[in-house]
Amino acid sequence: MELMTEENFYISIGELMRNQQQRDDDGQNHQHQNPTQIGHQPNLYLLNRTDDRNQYHHIAVKLQRAAVLGKEKEVVKFLKEVGPSMLKWAITRGHETLLHVATGAKQTALVEMIIGHMEDGDLMLQDRNGNTAFCFAAAVGATKIAEMMLQKNGSLATRRGSQNKTPLYMAVLFGKRKMAEKLYNNQILRDDLTVDDKTDIFFKSIDTGLYDFALKLVKNNPDLARARTRYGEKTALHVLAPQPSAFHGKSVHNLILRILNLNRNPAIELVQCLWLNITRQQPEVNIIDIIRTPSELLFDATKSGNFGFLTEIIKVYPDVIHEKDKDGRSIFHVAVLHRHSDIFDLIYQTIYLNKELLLSFVDSSHNNILHLAAKCQNLPSVSSEKGAALKMQRELLFFKEIEKIVPPHFKDMKNNVVGEQQLTPQELFSKEHEDLLKGGEAWMKNAATSCLVVATIITSVIFTATYTVPGGTTARGDIDDHNSTVAEGSPIHLNKTLFKIFSMSNVIGLSFSTISILMFLSILLSGFAEKDFIWFLPLKLFVGLVTLLFSVISIMVTYSSTYFLAYPYHERLNWITSTTVLLVSVPIIICAQVLFPLLGDILLLLYRGIRVCFLKPVLEKVHDLLEMVHDFVVYI
């Protein structure tokens, strides 16, 4: 629904339904649409009055507005002036009646009043696309309106609409879960469904994310597990394989279901039901055919990172892990190639199979699994130099992880790509990541250069401030606040707290800024080897940025203490003191806002590098030690 000018006041929901239905399950236009039978056409009196266009605008447009906004008084006024016959008139270009428009706007009270003035048969009136008002109710999910209409005329449930589709299909098409459930529970409508109807509704419910409804359908109709889409010949498993978001609970409905029942995910339950139906009812030859045709669903799921889908498939039928794609790669290899470590961990850690045998497979180009970990072309495009540094480290860590689990001779094995030089995994990694390394190096150097300039300026300012004593020094014979003679050349404010703050902030600021300079210089002088991106360079950059931030804070504290020593407004709280503190805080806040996002990225780099290089090996050794202790205790 959309309110516009009176010339174009009502946007027909019927047109929207027609456009939606012109797309098939594969996103292609239907080659042959089912014919729409329009047996109950509304009166086109207003639309055919070419001699008096004012009549159309006076009645039709005003009725549209009244229906959309739910203005019962205006409708009643027209009923008194024109009579109940106007309820049979088409009031839009799409031949929708007043009931169609009010239903599409979900104006329940108005619809109830209109139905009360109509004959039972008048509810069967269809728009230009063949949709009854009941079809509109199904499409917008107006359950109360649908109930009122069915009470008036029960045959509406089986009256088909645009493209000969059932109201149930339209509810599913627009993702109206409650409406779909209610209509499916209608025995008359369910008995009217053909095999093609059930298939179309089933696949459309998957497309629109109504996985719990699709599960109900397949439980009542087990043959749907093997059904294929009209265009593309896909099974439901093929449709679900490249949809990882369905298994991660990202939709609001799925999230709510998982909160209420932590073990329940409709998409996972649907896959379980589909896969059990197939494996129990089909011989192994047919199972393999289903897996491979029209595409290899296991590899579709692996490429998209659909961890939940693969978990259920492998759990029920572990032998699928031996499947290979057209390039001779197993799920292991494809998971590594596309950097889906969770899938790789699933296969490697939870499946009790000969993993060494699976790891030893080489593809048609003689690439072992370490060669695939060295490849770079399947990564998302790098949009910035910072992104290059982050990706470079992630790639290095992933490569090192795979390197730990492969047989030692794999590291020296060369591939055999036609027309290219034979390379070991390490050589291939260096070649594939050459541009990524350059991008990461450029980002590190630019960041270090910019920060080095700032750190140098801060150092010079603080160094100068160290020899500029606030308030000056004492002369011979000067006495302090306690009437004691002070030494000549001593700072006048020596015993004041603010002077101590001034002194300490100078020392801290100079130390931090000097450390910052040294860190950034060491980055600029670095050789930028691949291994340096793991933790060495991120650590230097992190220390440099943190010390730079503290040096900025120190210089502002130094300034503040000097200011209040010279102008002692702080002795009483007033607007000058408040304004000074506020303005001094602004540079610190801006500096923090600029540096914190960068610090976050660097901290992530540093954490991943330290975890893989130091923490993980230590934890593995602790785990091995605990196992040895356990075995020893059991032996005793």
UniProtKB/TrEMBL annotation:
GO CC annotation: membrane
Keywords linked to the UniProt accession: Membrane, Transmembrane, Transmembrane helix
Region span, Disordered: 20-42
Protein origin, superkingdom: Eukaryota
Gene3D superfamilies linked to this entry: Ankyrin repeat-containing domain (1.25.40.20)
Transmembrane segments: 507-529, 541-561, 581-607
Annotated ranges, domain PGG: 442-564
Entry annotated with the keyword Transmembrane: yes
Family annotation (Pfam families): Ank_2 (PF12796), PGG (PF13962)
Protein name: PGG domain-containing protein
Organism from which the protein derives: Dipteronia sinensis
